[in-house]
Amino acid sequence: MNLLDLFAIARARDPGAPALQWVDGERETEWSYGELWDEVEVLASGLAHQGLRPGDRVACYLGNRPEFVLIYLAILRAGAVMLPMNLAYRRRELEHLLSDAQPRFLVTEECQLPILAELADSDLAGLKELLVVERLESLRGAPRPPESAPSGDDLALLMYTSGTTGASKGARITHGNVVATVTALLAAWDWSPSDRLLLTLPLFHTHGLVVGLTTALAAGATVRLHRKFETEAVWADLLSGEVDLFFGVPTLYQRLLDRAGTSPVPFDLSHLRLLCSGSAPLPAETHQSIEELTGQTILERYGMTETGMNLSNPYAGARIPGTVGKPLPGVSARIVDAEDREVPAGDQGELQVRGPNVFEGYWNAPEKTAASFVIDATGHRWFRTGDLACVDPTTGYFTLLGRSRELIISGGYNIYPREIEEVLCTYPGIRAAAVVGRPSTEWGEVPVAFIVSDRSLATDDLVAFCRSQIAAFKVPKEVRVIEALPTNALGKVQKHLLPT
Ligand code: MLC
Ligand code: AMP
């Protein structure tokens, strides 16, 4: 089965049912499943007519907007591969993605053109077309492309995720992988066509794109899409009775709590069907405060770009704060020691997963792919998540305990210290740099940089330099100049000794 089959089933059920509601300030626009798909056919025809072939990559540098949804579906309909790019990425990150993936088309929106103009002198071999969604007339009127029927093994998404090496790697995600996550969630979270999902998460990552948009459209449900998370607008929608489900990263729940503060207005959300959290650890206090404020018990789940969704607290059953529940249908999970041997229940170790949801490997990186999997004695291929976890021997629920790889998660976005350190070390005078995560109530964690410099430097200038190189969310929230980095006898930096 491919993703198009899933959408076709939802569409055939009721073409008049509302698929997408776009909320733009006071204005609202709605597309039924039939209307949405008619537009997708037009755009897919235009893309094919302009030379898009099955298997070609289409990079998207787009914020949430209806055209994101239309272009995503049109790319799949044309048998091509969607490559979403985080809007916070700047030249260094964009160049890496575009030169590695070699997309044929780049789709953007007018307000991003000044940023893309910085790539004018970059060598982007293979890029044939720049499409601006405000000017898609050139795609209209083309003959319908032949029915494309990607197989489950064909790529649907190429999603870049930062590697331990600093440079991000493209996860090759097939139709079958996405179908596996989507069908597991449809069953596990009891989706139905009458559901209305409030979606404010960015569509350029797995949480917004796969868990939110794709699953809702496969359910025949309604997606109520916002450009971005704005606390007031989200509270208004949640309280209005117009939506049934909301998905967020912990920072969003913290913002909802902060806004509710000491307000005397009731924030009762017992009319909602489901609040979900994922992408970063949800503090047990946030879980409890949301329950006290709204009457809703958040369902926390665990996933990754490479694997889609793996573990989930139950829809019906105990949702235990601080845990991520049990494996979703079709997913197997185990905890192993440093030699990849399964440990007894209750012991800590690395979490490994396998199942039809797990990606096939990284783009152009066979060695990194090989290093990310381990084959067990029975020939099963397990993905090393790099997350540390344990299983409760009584309940079978998994708890995440941290990470074996160096990764900072800030507001649901991944930050690899090595990437920031590399950027810092290109600044004149900097001899060494170490970036570590510091706990933050607002973001979960934030990056802090320790640098050793040959000359005196203004940290403001250094921060400005970082901003010109990398996404703003990766820029260290604090820079400290120190005499020397603490190292061990082998010269390895001892980050845990840095005073965060
Ligand atoms: C924005 N800023 C951040 C940040 N987001 N700083 C640290 N961490 C973040 N995540 C900073 C900006 O750099 C800027 O700083 C300032 O905040 C305002 O920027 P903004 O863009 O206006 O911020 P805002 O819209 O408020 O964004 C915050 C947010 C956003 C929480 C809404 O970060 C967000 O949408 N996060 C969700 C990420 C997500 O979807 N992750 C899923 C990955 S998939 P300055 O200094 O320039 O003013 C995955 C798998 C799974 O993990 O399991 O789901
Ligand atoms: P990404 O590479 O952006 O897909 O991020 C995946 C990572 O997010 C995982 O490896 C985890 O470290 C983290 N993550 C996802 N969900 C949760 C969760 N519920 N609790 C803690 N960490 C999570």
Corresponding CATH architecture of the largest domain: 3-Layer(aba) Sandwich
Radius of gyration: 23 Å
Structural class: alpha/beta
Which ligands, by name, code or SMILES, are bound? malonyl-coenzyme A, adenosine monophosphate
Low-pLDDT runs of 5+ residues are: none
Features:
Rossmann fold; Luciferase, domain 3; GMP Synthetase, Chain A, domain 3; 9-stranded mixed beta sheet; 5-stranded antiparallel beta sheet; 13 helices; 26 strands; binds malonyl-coenzyme A; binds adenosine monophosphate
Summary, kept brief:
With 500 residues, the chain is an alpha/beta fold.
What does this entry look like structurally?
With 500 residues, the protein is of the alpha/beta class. The protein has 3 domains: 3-228, Rossmann fold; 298-403, Luciferase, Domain 3 (Luciferase, domain 3); 408-497, GMP Synthetase, Chain A, domain 3 (2-Layer Sandwich), CATH 3.30.300.30. The chain contains 13 helices and 26 strands. The strands form 6 sheets. A 9-stranded mixed sheet has the order 2-1-10-9-11-12-13-14-15, with helices on both faces. Strands 16, 17, 19, 20 and 21 form a 5-stranded antiparallel sheet that branches. Strand 5 (105-108), helix 5 (113-117) and strand 6 (129-132) form a beta-alpha-beta unit. Helix 6 crosses helix 7, helix 8 (231-240) packs across helix 9 and helix 9 packs across helix 10. It is globular, with a radius of gyration of 23 Å. The termini are far apart. The model has no long low-confidence stretch (mean pLDDT 94). The protein binds malonyl-coenzyme A and adenosine monophosphate. Malonyl-coenzyme A is lined by residues 201-202, 205-208, 228-229, 249, 251-252, 278-279, 303-305, 410-413, 443, 472-473.
